[in-house]
Amino acid sequence: MIQNNASLFRRLLGRILDFHILTLVIAVLFFAVNGSFSIAWRDSVTWDIIYTIYLIAIPIVWSGYVVGKRICKTKMKRMDDNEVKLSNTFLREVVGFQIIGFLTLGLAFIISSFMIAFREDKRAIHDIIGGTYVRTSN
Q1: Which residues of 69-100 are buried (b: 16+ CB within 10 A; e: fewer)?
Q2: 133: which strand partners?
Q3: What pTM was computed for the model?
Q4: Phi, psi dihedral angles at 69 (to 5 degrees)
Q5: What is the pLDDT of residue 30?
Q6: Domain boundary assignment for the chain
Q7: pLDDT of 129
């Protein structure tokens, strides 16, 4: 049985922090290159692609963490307690979060929130599809 499962609040806070920290980093880089500060690019498909690649790649190289998860002291793990692989993060983020979220017009996000809040294992739709769970770390 999974222990120390991350709460809905911690998981949501981690996502919000990731979004804003990555936005800030890219905005500073944009400013360094162009000499003007803008976050208008964040409303494009390019931002969705960058953010999704970040959520797929960083947990693989950083042992289940992204910046927001590290700050919130949560970590993504595979169901067998090993470190996540590309297949896990791709299925989780692209299929479980992006595609299903799009196809259900966002309803999957609401259902996943209830799943995290009320399921004993605190796994959401994207966790089940990706074969992952999120636990609190030390």
Answers
A1: bbebebbbbbeeeeebeeebbbbbbbebbbeb
A2: 77
A3: 0.89
A4: -65, -40
A5: 80
A6: 8-136
A7: 98
For residue 27, the one-letter residue type is: A
Whole-number Cα distances in Å, 118 to 70, 74, 113: 24, 18, 9
Residue 2 has pLDDT above 70, yes or no: no
For the chain, how big is the Rg over CA atoms in Å? 15
**Structure-token match 């690649």, residue found:** 53
3-state per-residue secondary structure call for 2-66: CCCECCHHHHHHHHHHHHHHHHHHHHHHHHHHHCCCCCHHHHCHHHHHHHHHHHHHHHHHCCCCC
Using one digit for the tens of pLDDT, what is the confidence trace for 27-66?
888 888 888 777 777 777 888 898 999 999 999 999 999 9
Cα–Cα distance for residue pair 69/108, rounded to 1 Å: 21
Gap between the Cα atoms of 69 and 15, Å rounded: 8
